[in-house]
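call fold(seq) -> tokens
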Amino acid sequence: MSAVRVRFAPSPTGYLHIGAARTALFNWLYARQTGGKFLLRVEDTDAQRSTDESTRSIIEGLEWLGLADYDEEIVFQSRNADKHREAALRLVNEGKAYRDFTPKEERGDGNVKQEIAERARKGAGEGADHRSNPFRDLPLEESEARAGAGEPYAVRLKVAREGRSRFEDVVYGAQERDYSEIEDLVLLRSGELAPLYNLSVVVDDIEMRITHVLRGQDHLTNTHKQALIYEALGAPIPRFAHLPLILAPNKAKLSKRKHGEVVSLTTYRDRGFVAAAFRNYLALLGWAPPDDQEMLSLAEMVEKFSLEGIHRSNAVFNFSESDARQWTDQKALWMNSEYIRTMPLAELLPLVRPELEAAGLWKPEYAEGAGAAWLEKTVELIRQRFYTLKDFSGQGRAYFADDFEYDEAAVAKNLKKEPRLKELLPALAERIERAEPFDAETCEQALRALADEAGVKAGLLINAARTALTGQAVGPSMFDIFAVVGRDRSAERLRAAAALV
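ret:
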């Protein structure tokens, strides 16, 4: 068996869709698992919709996911248009395709929606005879002469009148379709003889020596047409593995147009997802390892990945457009929180720094010495309850700056219900200032001693102090919070919070 060669072939007509990102991941995993080659081809033949900005977005998304180690130079499909035309015209010369001189107003000419509408108007459809084109059997000499005289034409593949197209899909099994259900498909559009999708894809895959094509299930019907082009060009047909679709909660196909930024890969990068966590989540959308392990390192994914593990059933991406807390799939958020909570600090800290810098919270002293040690201790303490990297500058702001906001519900619950806190919080500040040495243990002793003397439960002071120091109702151990916030800042915040009682 020849070495595996797979490609990811996005169209740069917008941001990188998470479904496309999953396709890239599966191709990458299969290449690495088999010791094959992973290639990138940018299908930029739609000049009106393809943009450099979209191309950059796709490449940046792949870099963020850790999939940018392509084994060969990036291929841009638009640069291969001459090769696509040459292939189509060779098929004409070999009698496997023909020039269609039908006037443009009477011809679909590659516009699928127009052709479908035209067939419906004429009463044609699936199972109808698409071989009635008057130019199908035009002698080659006459065809050449008319073309040489400047008469516009399209090029169509000659599809046999009888027989069936067959191929074995790794995921969906045997696929068959009668030739009578496949039109003489357009290879080159009239005018500038622009190559159409099915031709371009096949010629490029042959040129790139692609052995396996992993792509979305919505391409399954295209495969019959492309198989005919492979055969006409005398090239071996790759093995196909079509991936299940990713559906929205209402079971509609997840799409850029309908669902917006929630399906964009860059949304997750910009909203504080850890790339490794989102990559892990994507891998489980339509695939499962044999042992059903969920938390997978990249090396474990490579080791366990197989085409046979891909599901036939579509995956559902759960989110709510009307609930900000459910803005994306809760499993994705959970997995991201697990990575933040458990990944080595040496890997997490380089991710936290850009977030603090963007929020204006980074200080030069965090880079080395005592400042770096404090940062490590603080990040280790507060990461346990965080879901995204944004939480370090949001919920965690009070650890890095004094200008933080109090959560209104926390103030109402922990500060306003007990009038005595107006005196107890300043008293606690005095005890904290006298604690020696200043650490979590001595702060706990000081707080519990004050509670006993005042005849109140320690929980009253613990909850009030947490809100005073962090603005939040929940968080790490209160005594550890004292230790990382520091003596002076802790006392100052306790006194300031007394005014909120």
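The two ends are 76 Å apart (CA to CA).
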